[in-house]
TrEMBL record:
Provenance organism: Blastomonas natatoria
Gene Ontology annotations for the cellular component aspect, listed alphabetically: ribosome
Highest taxon in the source lineage: Bacteria
InterPro entries with a match to the protein in the record: RHF-like, RHF/RaiA
Keyword entries, A-Z: Ribonucleoprotein, Ribosomal protein
Pfam families (UniProt xref): Ribosomal_S30AE (PF02482)
Protein name: Sigma 54 modulation/S30EA-like ribosomal protein
SUPFAM superfamilies given in the database record: Ribosome binding protein Y (YfiA homologue) (SSF69754)
Length: 104
């Protein structure tokens, strides 16, 4: 599973942030790693300098082998919290996605 990290121009996407995001995502999605070719992480600050309680958006797009991509979004006031929120949602989505594939 390859993790691709992207940020908008309002979030500084340095190596430490990328490593932190990769650690969080890997810990949540590790059991699916053999079934996923890539996970794309997109971080954006929707309110810019105005701030807000949940203005950081983390979009995760997972690409299952031989299937269509699945996407979730997590919102929070801090980057790490937004990544954790999106990772938890992706974990639940992939549980459902691969569970349905097993029953068909």
């Amino acid at each position: 599973m390859h993790i691709q990290f992207n940020t908008d121009n309002r979030i500084t996407g340095d190596q430490s942030l990328a490593a932190q995001a990769e650690d969080i995502i890997t810990s949540r999605l590790d059991r699916f790693s053999s079934r996923l070719t890539r996970v794309e992480v997109h971080l954006a600050d929707v309110n810019g300098p105005k701030g807000g309680s949940d203005d950081i958006v983390c979009t995760l797009e997972a690409r299952p082998e031989g299937g269509k991509p699945v996407t979730v979004k997590g919102n929070a006031g801090q980057v790490e919290s937004a990544i954790r929120d999106a990772s938890d949602k992706m974990q639940a989505l992939l549980d459902t996605h691969f569970g349905k594939m097993r029953t068909h």
